[in-house]
Amino acid sequence: MRHIRRKQKKRRSSDSKDVGEIYSRLLDHRPVIHGEIRYFIKEFEEKRGLRELRVLENLNNTIFEANDKILPKCEEVANQMFHTLQQTEQEESQLQTEKLRAAEAQRIADWEEFMKEQYHLKTMVNEEHTKAMEHLKEQYAALEKDLPKQAL
Question: Mind telling me which Pfam families this protein's record contains (predicted)?
Answer without folding.
Answer: Muted
